[in-house]
Amino acid sequence: MRARLRARNSGLEKFLKSMRNFKIIFEYDGTDFCGWQTQKQGERTVQGEFEAVLSKIFKHPIKVIASGRTDSGVHARGQVISFKVETRMKPDEIKRALNGLLPADIAVHEASEVSADFHAQYSVKEKTYRYTILNRKVRSAFLRGHTLFYPYPLNVTLMRKAAKYIIGRHDFKSFQAHDPLRAERQTVRTIKKLVIKKEGDLITIDVTADGFLYKMVRNIVGTLLAIGSGQLPLEEMPKILKSKNRKTAPDTAPAHGLCLIQVKY
User: Which one of the listed residues 29, 71, 117, 171 is annotated catalytic?
Assistant: First the structure.
């Protein structure tokens, strides 16, 4: 019995050693997706598309791990996944196969083999999200799916002053949307950078942090918009942060203006 168990464990060990770990960096237009995570049957997700194509390439089910989940309508320029598989394919061959089979709204930029302990989610050091606002009186037919059309005046200087209050390590519970499936016991995060730029009619808000709570960036943007438009006094930002109460912050900014720009490991 013991000999059989040792043999079985030895076989499992050999199998695990033969598995290779791959890292994929890719972009997607989130317009027609119900977010990243596989959900109920019939709903189109980025994870669902990726796993279906990888399973087709390797002739058996493949499960992928993402750096994090994005919501319905949110885009990505630098999303990262990892997966393990027993194969002789080279990373470039996997990249070509993926781009040949994935739908037009997903494109792979890089494929590489990484160490066995690399984990797309748990190895993350920081992420950067960008929220883009089209701030003019006339909407755009071309930018409508990737920017928030905001036709009212915005005081970018006030928005930058408000942003300074939340840079650093804080409890961001006030900016966490409620979701029983994503209940976070630890709501302290570190925002390393928050940069607001205005170029012509476009305003971009780049937020870099060691991690994000559910809808945290969109809730921060909603508050910055309220301050920039004069609906909320600048002095309310530190009060909202200190309250640790989501009800004290303004409405969540729409999903389609948000994009995951980069993930660092």
Answer: 71
